[in-house]
């Protein structure tokens, strides 16, 4: 089967024009965090969810709120607390005395963009209710099942500091996030701009520049981005090296990894590489696309052993070693 890469490239050049508009609109309010904005777009286009980790005050909430305004979508924010119940997230049945019947009151999960703020503060029941919605794209209240609107993007945040009263997310649940993005402090010049804007209140208004229909269409086009078999093999090599490092000449990692990335890792890596190519307005995936997203896709899918912790080796160090050793096509 001959693939017409030029035709695909021309189509993607046309269809991806809105990406720049969306980035520009978000940059009106968000200063500096380019990596986070790019990853939000990858999550949005790849139909995946994002786990953001960073200390408080790094514009995590602001970012998804701004994205919801720039894409004409419904936004809701759930502040996770230790006393939160699943019904507070998905909704519940309420008795209506007039009608002498139960009516369904939908929860904040019924939106296009859901911010699950400090997800690790809520107990396991609430986390599993949210993660079921992420996986199944549907909610069951009583005996009725509701499909969630598309696009549906969950951005969960967790604080790496202040672990008092937090419940760590189980590995199997973390695996459901397409990306785990770690955010750092802004640069000094950027923080000066942020400080001035806050003191004067001189924030620009964010306007809707993209419709939900455009996003749905773009998701279909992303699937058409051409991925060569060599790139597929490269993605699989990266993932398999997390499971069987000794086969890739990485015997030193054998005792540091307790489990490798799941097949969700390979699927997400392929999807994210296609989205990255789309954002860069290219109709085909190159190894650079894979390398650009590999850390965000794999850092939360690798289990590290006690030896690794004792040696201060993180999952990121392991991914970086693998990327440096696995042969690039």
UniProtKB/TrEMBL annotation:
Organism: Wenyingzhuangia gilva
Superkingdom, natural source: Bacteria
Protein name as annotated: MoxR family ATPase
Coiled coil segments of this chain: none
Domain ChlI/MoxR AAA lid, residue spans: 257-322
Matches recorded under Gene3D superfamilies: Magnesium chelatase subunit I, C-Terminal domain (1.10.8.80), P-loop containing nucleotide triphosphate hydrolases (3.40.50.300)
Residue span, ATPase AAA-3 domain: 49-179
Phylogenetic lineage: Bacteria, Pseudomonadati, Bacteroidota, Flavobacteriia, Flavobacteriales
InterPro entries per UniProt: ATPase_AAA-3, CbbQ/NirQ/NorQ/GpvN, ChlI/MoxR_AAA_lid, P-loop_NTPase
UniProt xrefs under Pfam families: AAA_3, AAA_lid_2
């Amino acid at each position: 089967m001959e693939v017409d890469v030029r035709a695909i490239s021309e189509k993607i050049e046309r269809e991806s024009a809105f990406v720049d508009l969306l980035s520009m609109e978000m940059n009106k309010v968000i200063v500096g965090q380019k990596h986070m904005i790019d990853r939000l777009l990858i999550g949005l286009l790849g139909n995946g969810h994002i786990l953001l980790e960073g200390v408080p005050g790094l514009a995590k909430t602001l970012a998804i709120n701004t994205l919801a305004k720039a894409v004409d979508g419904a936004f809701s924010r759930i502040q996770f607390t230790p006393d939160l119940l699943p019904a507070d997230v998905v909704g519940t049945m309420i008795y209506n005395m007039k009608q002498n019947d139960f009516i369904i009151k939908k929860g904040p999960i019924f939106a296009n963009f859901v911010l699950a703020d400090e997800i690790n503060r809520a107990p396991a029941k609430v986390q599993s209710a949210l993660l079921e919605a992420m996986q199944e794209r549907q909610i069951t209240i009583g005996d009725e099942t509701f499909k969630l609107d598309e696009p549906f993007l969950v951005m969960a945040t967790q604080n790496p500091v202040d672990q008092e009263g937090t419940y760590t997310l189980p590995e199997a649940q973390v695996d459901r996030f397409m990306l785990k993005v770690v955010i750092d402090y802004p640069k000094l010049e950027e923080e000066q701009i942020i400080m001035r804007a806050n003191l004067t209140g001189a924030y620009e208004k964010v306007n809707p520049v993209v419709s939900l229909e455009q996003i749905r269409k773009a998701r279909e086009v992303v699937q058409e981005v051409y991925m060569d078999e060599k790139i597929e093999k490269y993605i699989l090599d990266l993932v398999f090296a997390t499971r069987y490092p000794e086969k890739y000449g990485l015997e030193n990692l054998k005792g540091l990894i307790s489990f490798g990335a799941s097949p969700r890792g390979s699927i997400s890596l392929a999807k994210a590489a296609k989205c990255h190519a789309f954002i860069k307005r290219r109709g085909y995936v190159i190894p650079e696309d894979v390398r650009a997203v590999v850390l965000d896709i794999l850092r939360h899918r690798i289990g590290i052993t006690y030896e690794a912790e004792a040696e201060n080796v993180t999952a990121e160090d392991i991914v970086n070693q693998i990327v440096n050793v696995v042969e690039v096509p």
